[in-house]
Amino acid sequence: MRIAFYSTLQGMSWGGSEELWSAAAEALLRDGHQACLQFRQRRYVPQQLRPLLDMGAEVTPRRGPFFGGRIRKLLRKMRSPNYNLLKWFRAAQPDFVLISVSYHMDDLQVAHACKEAGIPYGILVQAASPYQWTDPWNAESQRTAYANAARCYFVSAQNRDILEANLGVDLSDAEIVDNPFNVSVDAAPAWPVATNPWKLACVARVHFQSKAQDVLLQVMRQSKWRQRPLELTLHGSDGGSLKQFKSLVKLYDLQKTVKLGGFVDNIETVWARNHGLILPSRYEGNPLAMIEAMMCGRMPIVTNVGRAAELIDDNHSGFIAAAATVELVDDALERAWQRRHEWQEIGANAAKAVRKRHSLSPAQDFANAIVAATQPRRREAVSPVRIAGAINAA
Asked: What pLDDT is stored for residue 14 in this prediction?
């Protein structure tokens, strides 16, 4: 089969939202299928795509909005918004298109192009926020895109429910799929024996809107946490809030207890130095950081977003705050602190739980799901003549 992958990611070159579709593409290539990708054009190809290129995947860069030239502007107005997508379909000749949606507000014009060309497609949603609603003028277009999909996939039931309420569309047939993780299946970094200070890591891009590091800093500024032997280190790239983060650390005088560790390639080295994860997100899908921490036997302190409540038993294999507020995150951290001498045991409980409740081969599982989604349709249904006719009409 020829499977096309279309990522809606715009604001950065790579992120956790890209791990599942790219890993599934690798699995499909290993299984003898063909893969073609359309990804936002960058100055440099993200290094995460290079294994796919080496395996023979075809990558078509997608340009952003073009603002130069009167003639080009006029042509863009005259052409259908599907014109370039239909050209890609004619060149790629996919049997199925997997649309990876990094955030539920992302544009889904590609879904309408698939419908116009007669190509079955699936939509994979990586994150949905209850704090941002689809604009009324775009809601019907989004509803149609999901309604016409051959399959819809979500990385958490909570995200499915958020989008269902957002659009008023029935998504009860959507499949819940697992995200991949970047640690070994049998990861077991040694427990850090030193407990002065106790060490927690927040592994996430520095992005207040989603990851809520601002809430975490407000918790840490309280006098009780200043007086306790607890050190917090943030690991992650700048998601747009790094400057604000540094300003708040200085404003709250937290330089001694809050550190900036930056992005780390080998995440197991982070868990070799830390006793637990704290992730006070306002919204999530199925965060890789949480899965990886649990796989490594580290205690998670998280908010009740995404898959958290499905994978963690509160007060047994981790600690869950009901929402990303200072009071609730402080409560979860306080409960954890009072049992700090049990953190290794709680981390061991987390490692057992995640291996029972989460796939250990999520990329292959998702690749198999994509192949299964193509079965009702045959290649002859997506003829070059039909796509060419759609291009001419556009």
From this structure: 77
Other CB atoms within 10 A of residue 308 CB: 23
56: left (phi over 0), alpha (psi -120 to 50) or beta: left
Instruction: Classify 69 in phi/psi space as left (phi over 0), alpha (psi -120 to 50) or beta.
Output: left
pLDDT tens-place string over residues 284-294: 999 999 999 99
* Cα–Cα distance, 171 to 174 (Å, whole number): 5
- How confident is the model over 97-122, as pLDDT tens digits? 999 999 999 999 999 999 999 999 99
Does the pTM surpass 0.85? The reply is yes
Cβ-based neighbour number of residue 125 at 10 Å: 27
DSSP helix/strand/coil, 374: helix
Q: How far is CA 158 from CA 100, 102, 140, 144, 340, in A?
A: 18, 16, 22, 21, 30
Q: Residues 316, 260: contact at Cβ < 8 Å?
A: no
Written as one string, the DSSP assignment of 71-128 is HHHHHHHHS-TTHHHHHHHHHH--SEEEEEESSTTS--HHHHHHHHHT--EEEEE---
Q: 219: alpha, beta or left, given left = phi > 0 and alpha = psi -120 to 50? A: alpha
301 vs 199: CA distance, rounded Å: 13
DSSP 314: B
Q: How many CB atoms lie within 10 A of CB 255?
A: 9
Tokens read off for 221: 């500024």
List of residues 6+ apart from 349 with CB closer than 8 A: 313, 316, 317
Determine which helix (DSSP H) or strand (DSSP E) holds 276, and give its type and residue range. Answer: strand 276-279
Query: What share of residues in the chain are helix, strand, coil (percent, to 5)?
Result: 45, 15, 40
User: What residues contact residue 149 under an 8 Å CB cut-off, 6+ apart?
Assistant: 111, 121, 122, 123
Distance, in Å, from the CA atom of 287 to the CA atom of 70, rounded to the nearest integer, reads: 44
C-alpha span between 244 and 242 (Å, rounded) = 5
DSSP string spanning 325-360? SHHHHHHHHHHHHTTGGGHHHHHHHHHHHHHHHS-S
Average pLDDT estimate for 71-82: 56
